[in-house]
Write a sequence for this structure.
């Protein structure tokens, strides 16, 4: 087995940092969408971190409800509504960041295709070729 080949293919190539730089430059043409997607990810993480605290509060309130028969049922309803709201907002933020990420990726692919076709149009016509059977 050729260990030289295995060693060479397991690491990053020397052009990898340049590739990442080009991808970042392409994505920075959509600064507003990129910023909105990053903010949606950060806010989604914050709302996701709120859910366990709300669940523990709801469990504590449910235990009080069952121990003291109907004590604090209104608080339990408000906690359930808050938990539902936080989960819904987190879901909407996840949708937003997925949608914006896809939109940025599609626009980057479109830009790359247009640049490729522009370069393809600059090639000379093969007028010297003749078709013979």
């Amino acid at each position: 087995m050729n260990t030289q080949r295995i060693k060479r293919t397991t690491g990053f190539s020397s052009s990898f940092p340049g590739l990442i730089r080009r991808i970042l430059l392409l994505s920075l043409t959509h600064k507003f969408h990129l910023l909105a997607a990053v903010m949606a990810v950060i806010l989604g993480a914050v709302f996701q971190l709120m859910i366990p605290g709300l669940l523990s509060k709801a469990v504590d309130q449910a235990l009080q409800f069952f121990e003291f028969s109907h004590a604090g049922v209104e608080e339990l309803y408000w906690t359930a509504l808050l938990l539902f709201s936080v989960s819904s907002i987190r879901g909407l933020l996840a949708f937003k960041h997925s949608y914006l990420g896809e939109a940025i990726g599609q626009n980057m692919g479109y830009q790359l295709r247009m640049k490729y076709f522009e370069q393809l149009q600059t090639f000379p016509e093969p007028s010297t070729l003749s078709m013979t059977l």
Remarks:
- The helical segments are 3-10, 16-27, 31-67, 73-121.
- The mean pLDDT is 84.
